Task: inverse folding
């Protein structure tokens, strides 16, 4: 299989997800080796364009590229390029003129990777676009769940928090639905996007009810500025109504897997004793992120398989 | 202010109009109960005969067989961008686009830089169209500098020919200022054209809020953001007795509110754009800024309601909201792109192809909505196909098929949402102000 771009998980097939996850498993094995590096992408040049702050995702992509022996160039700038006097398209076309093969882009404007993919020659990997999608996060979350629970089909997953502004939510919803999981979204009504049911999910406003039902809860980061924009009354109230606390988990008669894409606001959407507790797979997610990004880069570069 | 030699649009030619016959065309003027195939003679800018042209006629003869001649089309919502944004459009390129689309008159919005809020600028803009068969009627700003605070000197502006006021591009946010505008303009008999938008509900909005905005992760610009402002303005028109014209109505509920207001005798009129009558918000899936417009493209149910409202007269007229933007301003990430679409050169063909040919709108009503109602709202003399009237005519083909090509626009900009569309019908010529332009194939 070869991927032209990875723009999002909307419309992705079960077969493609399965192939990416399977390939990521073999890369995970590479990461365990004493010298965790393979020559698969030697001679391939990847430009990492981060138009929005990111630590985890930027390092994860860069590490994945280096583990595959790709050459990497990095560009970080917050805000729009327009403000700096050069359009995004001009910036990328200049990079292309220096002969690059793939662009990894994070941008605050939804749809930016799609916009670029229509207009440039290089492969485009979406590292998070606005409130739209974060496909590699969706894939690494699915990899984590498949490793932990052995399957995705039929899993009951709650996505908890700021669904409206979350690209992680959308990619998880599309990916999990493609794999046959059931998804419930749980958030304050002010952070629930309109007609969210059209994405194939159910809405539950009562967190305890949602937790009783689920096998997995994926807790989204709450942007602290939601307080200023009037979408939540206070962080304290948010924690009281939608925070994942140990007390809530202790009322359940079954174990659930706790995920968070990071960075966490401890004491807001998730309490420390839950984040660091026995049900948490949050650091596994980060490890799997490197393997998933290696798999995606590999499939996009279209190289021969390195492992027999 | 004469602009020297004026060239017609691409693929068009100028015809000597001092003595002219259009032979054997179908003449349609619903206001005068006319729908008849015969000759029409124009001499020195006036219609001098309707019926078989005199034998031995010595002037220009246009073979009109197969064409339809209607009163000249008028677009009361155009952005000509001059002064200040001449890289997007000028009065003159806008007039070429208008003529190519069959319009003999346009009203241009004052969201220029500086805003058209004084008589000098009104004269300047109008003068740029000298020598064109397209009349340009500047709409002056409702408030000074379009800041939404102090009314413009409306009486003085009307003394230089202004017929309507608008802060279009932005709404008049303050209900009190809008009240005063309707009172004062109403006293003078002028209409206030309002872009209905409640800014606190639409901040950051990029597209219609619904299932598609949720899926695409784009900030919603909800229907209610338009409807609350529209209802407020209807209430203010009722309270003040002023004249309100609602620009580019885009929602089903908005159509219903206007229908109710008219029933109650409130002096409100409304327009719909060809793009809101034919395009829905799922097109934003491409993230192309050619589909980013304010108010945004909405849902099929809204399109249906607009078409019904246009057919039954609730929506009085069609206006394009022609909003040129340079290509590199639009070729950016969607959130950074400006709102707006071209409209002049595709308006008739889009409405004819998608509404009239689909039996959703009668051809008479199309002519009424493109030619007659806009002038009525502006309180301008009607363009009529009557002997003795000024010759102000649009010549149409109802059979020509063509493909919209963003590269071949007469507008200075290319931001049409209809690129690549196969359409039927187009303007073949315009006659106005003693000038006649026709397509070269005539």
Result:
């Amino acid at each position: 299989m070869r991927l032209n771009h990875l723009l999002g998980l909307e419309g992705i097939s079960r077969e493609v997800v399965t192939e990416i996850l399977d390939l990521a498993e073999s890369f995970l094995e590479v990461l365990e080796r004493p010298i965790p590096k393979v020559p698969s992408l030697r001679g391939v040049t990847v430009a990492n364009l981060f138009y929005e702050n990111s630590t985890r995702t930027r390092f994860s992509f860069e590490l994945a590229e280096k583990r595959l022996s790709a050459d990497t160039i990095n560009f970080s700038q917050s805000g729009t390029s327009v403000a700096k006097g050069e359009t995004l398209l001009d910036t990328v076309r200049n990079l292309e003129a220096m002969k690059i093969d793939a662009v990894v882009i994070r941008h605050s404007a939804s749809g930016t990777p799609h916009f670029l993919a229509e207009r440039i020659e290089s492969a485009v990997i979406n590292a998070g676009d606005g409130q739209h999608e974060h496909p590699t996060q969706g894939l690494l979350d699915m990899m984590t769940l498949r490793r932990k629970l052995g399957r995705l089909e039929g899993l009951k997953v709650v996505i908890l928090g700021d669904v409206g502004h979350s690209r992680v939510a959308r990619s998880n919803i599309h990916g999990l639905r493609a794999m046959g999981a059931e998804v419930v979204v749980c958030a304050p009504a002010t952070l629930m996007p309109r007609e969210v049911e059209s994405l194939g999910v159910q809405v539950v406003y009562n967190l305890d009810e949602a937790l009783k039902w689920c096998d997995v809860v994926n807790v989204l980061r709450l942007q602290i500025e939601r307080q200023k924009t009037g979408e939540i009354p206070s962080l304290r109230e948010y924690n009281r109504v939608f925070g994942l606390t140990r007390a809530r988990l202790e009322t359940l008669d079954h174990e659930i897997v706790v995920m968070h894409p990071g960075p966490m606001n401890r004491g807001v959407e998730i309490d420390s004793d839950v984040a660091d507790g026995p049900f948490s797979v949050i650091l596994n997610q980060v490890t799997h992120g490197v393997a998933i990004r290696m798999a995606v880069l590999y499939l996009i570069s279209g190289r021969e398989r390195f492992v027999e | 202010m004469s602009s020297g030699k004026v060239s017609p649009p691409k693929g068009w030619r100028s015809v000597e109009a001092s003595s002219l016959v259009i032979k054997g065309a179908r003449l349609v003027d619903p206001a005068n109960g006319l729908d008849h195939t015969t000759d029409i003679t124009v001499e020195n800018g006036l219609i001098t005969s309707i019926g078989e042209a005199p034998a031995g006629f010595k002037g220009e003869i246009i073979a009109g067989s197969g064409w339809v001649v209607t009163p000249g089309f008028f677009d009361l919502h155009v952005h000509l961008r001059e002064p200040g944004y001449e890289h997007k459009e000028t009065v003159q390129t806008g007039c070429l686009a208008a003529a190519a689309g069959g319009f003999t008159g346009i009203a241009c919005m004052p969201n220029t830089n500086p805003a058209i809020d004084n008589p000098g600028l009104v004269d300047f803009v109008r003068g740029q169209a000298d020598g064109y068969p397209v009349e340009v009627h500047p709409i002056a700003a409702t408030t000074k500098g379009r800041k939404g605070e102090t009314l413009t000197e409306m009486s003085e502006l009307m003394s230089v020919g202004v017929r309507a006021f608008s802060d279009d591009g932005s709404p008049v946010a303050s209900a009190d200022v809008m009240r005063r505008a309707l009172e004062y303009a109403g006293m003078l008999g002028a209409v206030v054209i309002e872009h209905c938008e409640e800014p606190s509900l639409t901040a950051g909005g990029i597209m219609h809020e619904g299932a598609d905005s949720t899926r695409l992760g784009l900030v919603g610009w909800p229907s209610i953001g338009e409807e609350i402002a529209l209802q407020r303005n209807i209430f203010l028109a009722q309270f003040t007795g002023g004249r309100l014209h609602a620009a580019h109505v885009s929602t089903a509920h908005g159509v219903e509110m206007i229908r109710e207001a008219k029933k109650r005798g409130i002096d409100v009129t409304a327009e719909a754009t060809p793009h809101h009558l034919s395009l829905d918000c799922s097109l934003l899936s491409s993230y192309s800024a050619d589909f980013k417009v304010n108010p945004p493209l909405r849902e099929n149910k809204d399109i249906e309601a607009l078409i019904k409202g246009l057919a039954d007269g609730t929506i009085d007229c069609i206006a394009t909201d022609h909003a040129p933007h340079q290509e590199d301003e639009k070729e950016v990430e969607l959130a950074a792109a400006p709102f707006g679409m071209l409209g002049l050169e595709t308006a008739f063909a889009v409405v004819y192809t998608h509404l009239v040919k689909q039996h959703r709108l009668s051809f008479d009503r199309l002519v009424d909505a493109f030619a007659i109602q806009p002038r009525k709202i502006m309180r301008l003399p009607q363009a009529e196909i009557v002997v003795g009237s000024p010759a102000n005519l649009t010549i149409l083909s109802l059979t020509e098929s063509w493909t919209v090509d963003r590269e071949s626009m007469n507008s200075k900009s290319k931001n049409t949402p209809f690129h690549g569309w196969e359409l039927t019908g187009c303007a073949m010529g315009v006659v106005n102000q003693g000038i006649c332009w026709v397509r070269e194939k005539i």
Notes: Residues 218 and 259 of chain A are 5 Å apart (CA to CA). The mean pLDDT of chain A is 94.
